Fold this protein.
Amino acid sequence: MRRSVILWIGLAIASVALSAAAAFETRATKLQAIKSVGIVSAIGEEMSLTRAGLTGLGNTAQSLSISAWGLDELIVQQATKLLSGRFRVQPVNYRRAAFAAVRDSAVTPVNLLRSDPFKELVRSDVAPQGLDAYIVITRARSKLGNGRNVEGVGLAQYRTLLADYGLIHALYEVRVIEGKSFDVIEKRAAAPLENTGTLRLAGPSGPIDETFEGPAASERLRAAIADLITRSLPVTLGDMHLIDGQ
């Protein structure tokens, strides 16, 4: 009986490994066939201000417009520069608000069995159609301590009885959507950078300090968020094998 169980487990592991290898080969084949891409970015129109913790602070969240910062334009510019060595990147038009309105991340495990909400948006809201693939960059989500979810661009504060922690964050995920079938070829959330502080998020973030106070705080904050994006984007695209040499 024990030998049968061990044999069954071994066969199951082998089957999973073969399935994973086949899926990787399929993704690699589809990526190799891509010549032209369009880039859609919808993460940077608003910034969240989140407070959470154990001190009766009140788990509240607010948001404010940062459309003047031009973060989505920066992302498209940076992604175009990174991807142009391998693909023909063509400008596309899209309704940014429609992509930003999708709040439930399809990258998270609970949503893996659901239809990806961005497939139909690419089909209906992006022009021109007919490119080999579309690179879609949207907000991602992470837990703040053991409390609230935070997503996209923002400031997060978490208080305990003994300490007060603050972070800036730029949480995003990238999808490669095939331009004919609109299947999702690959998707990945941007990973943390070198953040080694006590409070961590599952994506690009950094600590808040006194430099974010005073009359020039808004510009310094914009620059810090832009830095998180520009440092993490090549890593994310490299992890997805979208950049030559990665």
Residues 38 and 90 are 5 Å apart (CA to CA).
